[in-house]
Design goal:
- α4 packs antiparallel against α5 and α11 runs antiparallel to α12.
- The two termini are 46 Å apart.
- This protein is 54% helix and 18% strand.
- By secondary structure, the chain is of the alpha+beta class.
- The chain has 18 helices and eleven strands.
- The strands form two sheets. The protein has a six-stranded mixed β-barrel.
- A hairpin with a 2-residue loop joins β6 and β7.
- The protein has three domains: 77 residues, no CATH class; 115 residues, Serine Threonine Protein Phosphatase 5, Tetratricopeptide repeat, CATH 1.25.40; 125 residues, Acid Proteases (Cathepsin D, subunit A, domain 1, Beta Barrel), CATH 2.40.70.10.
Length: 418
């Protein structure tokens, strides 16, 4: 929240507290003595009504019953209409700081809701998604989520935007975050339906694009995030059989046999592919022999560090198959920028270990991994700290260009053209 937002909220809160304190004091203060009365300012009924009218734009009058009078409802209605007009005007002009200020004021001034501003906000966000307005979408969602970090509707829109722009791993990470904020049954049903729709759409899109390898990685990530139902896992097992990952298929099916809802289907798949699954144990060496390059990895905890070159400058990145985009720390990028110029493409919202964060997207002319060189690759730059000797994360926008296999025993990365 910027300084303007803090000051606005503080002034409003102070005014509300001061006004409420005055009303409460008027109700229960002790009767003053005759000498005290001569020192106190006299407030007649006319001036008191004037004060209430001036402050009605800040917050509703204290309720003495369950029903407001027609005149009070009219004042609130006029104020809410003015706020809606002003809010929509600021959104249309892309003055998002002012728009969020109005949104906060509407919540602070009305304890029953946001005076109908939320539908206007969601309508505008949907328009930005439809028009792929990345910079404006990023600015608005970052400002809004910096205040209302657990708003399920906006977070789901963020996941939708990431999916529509091809950032599937980031979309999955956002869905995992949203799931943790779904407290009510209604929210849980909404989130679960959205996750199911996401998986179905991604499965259809990647199968149509003949990108089974990318689809398998998304399934693996979503399983790690605990987003897959038993039925989703059944589809994951079938995909593993299609891609020749028999060891993975056996492991998934063995788990699903214990699940009553899909146990019969899991057993049938194992019967149908019994011979292939039994031969899967000996496929590792044959698979390795199909690769054309290998890279020695360094182990860092439960992850592996790979060396590569960005425009002829060496960097060390942790392999992260759960990241759609390769990411550099701000410090590592600054070192690269001393010798190279990069084209800034825009900004995106990322879900990091420290929460929602905005990062810059750059295009690099060349990137070399092993004997392979890629051109026009995008990288993200985030202001986050990495362990000593680590410059960032190696994501799927690079790895997806290859067939690859990580041998944990030998600590080798095997690569081949796709």
């Amino acid at each position: 929240m910027n300084a303007k937002q803090h000051s606005t909220a503080t002034l409003l809160a102070s005014a509300a507290i001061a006004f409420s304190a005055g009303l409460y004091w008027d109700q229960w203060r002790p009767m003053p003595s005759n000498s005290d009365q001569s020192l106190m300012p006299q407030v007649n009924s006319t001036s008191k009504r004037s004060l209430e009218q001036k402050t009605s734009s800040l917050e509703p009058l204290p309720k003495k019953s369950n029903h407001l009078g027609n005149s009070a409802l009219g004042v609130i209605g006029m104020a809410s209409d003015n706020q809606r007009v002003s809010f929509k005007k600021q959104l249309t002009a892309h003055n998002y700081v002012a728009a969020i200020d109005i949104y906060q004021l509407s919540l602070d001034a009305n304890d029953t809701g946001d005076l109908g501003l939320k539908p206007l906000l969601m309508e505008h966000i949907e328009m930005l998604i439809s028009s792929s307005s990345q910079s404006q979408f990023t600015e608005l969602t970052e400002l809004y989520l910096s205040v209302f970090y657990d708003d399920i509707d906006v977070l789901l829109s963020l996941a939708k935007f990431n999916r529509s722009t091809g950032f599937l791993a980031e979309a999955a990470a956002i869905l995992h975050l949203v799931k943790s904020y779904a407290y009510t049954n209604r929210d849980k049903i909404t989130v679960e339906a959205t996750i199911d729709d996401f998986i179905s759409q991604v499965h259809t899109d990647l199968v149509s694009a003949d990108d089974l390898f990318g689809l398998a990685n998304i399934y693996q990530q979503m399983h790690r995030l605990n987003l897959l139902t038993p039925m989703h896992r059944l589809r994951q097992a079938q995909l593993s059989i299609q891609t020749g990952s028999m060891a993975s298929a056996r492991e998934i099916l063995a788990d699903l046999i214990q699940e009553p809802s899909v146990s019969a289907e899991a057993e049938q798949i194992m019967l149908n592919h019994q011979q292939e699954l039994s031969l899967g144990k000996g496929n590792k060496m044959a698979m390795k022999n199909g690769y054309s390059d290998q890279i020695v990895l360094a182990r860092r905890g439960n992850q592996y560090l790979a060396d590569l070159e960005i425009q002829d400058t060496k960097v060390a990145l942790l392999i992260d198959t759960g990241a759609s985009m390769t990411t550099l720390s701000q410090q590592a990028f600054q070192t690269l920028s001393n010798n190279h110029t990069f084209n800034l493409l825009g900004q995106r919202i990322f879900n990091t270990a420290n929460g929602i964060a905005k990062g810059n997207i750059y295009q690099v002319d060349s990137l070399t991994l092993g004997r392979f060189t890629l051109a026009g690759i995008q990288i993200a730059v985030l202001d986050f700290s990495m362990p000593d000797g680590v410059d960032g994360l190696l994501g799927m926008n690079i790895l997806a260009n290859f067939r690859f296999h990580i041998d944990q025993k030998t600590q080798m990365l095997y690569l081949a053209d796709r």
